[in-house]
Amino acid sequence: MLFPQRRITASVVRPLRADRAEECARLHASGFAYPWSVEEIVSLIAGPTAIGSAALDPASNKMRGFALSRLAADEAEILTIAVDPAWRKYGVGRDLLRAHLGSVTLAGAKKIFLEVDANNAPALALYRRFQFVKVGERAGYYRRPDGQPATALIMRRDLA
Q: Among 6, 76, 129, 153, which has the minimal tally of Cβ within 10 Å of its Cβ?
């Protein structure tokens, strides 16, 4: 074979635990200009309304990605999703989001919201694939690495 292909094994998605906070912080820093600290992630995971999912390598148990949401009554908000750069474009985000939406639904959410940078084409494609629709926007909500403001799109998906 001239160009051997990387054999991809599907991620195993498990509930996110606080002992994974350092891995989460590393992944978050790889995808966001202003990443959360380990302490912030521990605090979010430990919150009584938190729902977290970790996409793990089935052989090494190394984290490929994570999603973290917060539940309020029958609504949830995705706070963040991050995928290791080495695993982007291999379906980790898709598998992670599918499992995470299942967990949020089991927790009682009837709809889920998120905010995403209007210029984040890969994230927008993923969310649209999962039937999220734009319901609003927040101008200047994010800061780009150069300090310039960026618009956040508010998206929603009905779960039940």
A: 6
Integer Cα distance of 99 and 106 in angstroms: 11
Here the CATH number for the domain that contains residue 149 is: 3.40.630.30
Q: Which two tokens stand for residue 82?
A: 């991050």
Instruction: For residue range 79-115, list pLDDT tens digits in order.
Output: 999 999 999 999 999 999 999 999 999 999 999 999 9
> Residue 21 domain-assigned?
yes
- Residue 134 φ then ψ, to 5°: -70, 130
Catalytically active residues are 115, 127
- What the block records as the tokens of 5 is 């292909």
Residue 5 lies in a domain: no
* Domain range enclosing 20: 12-158
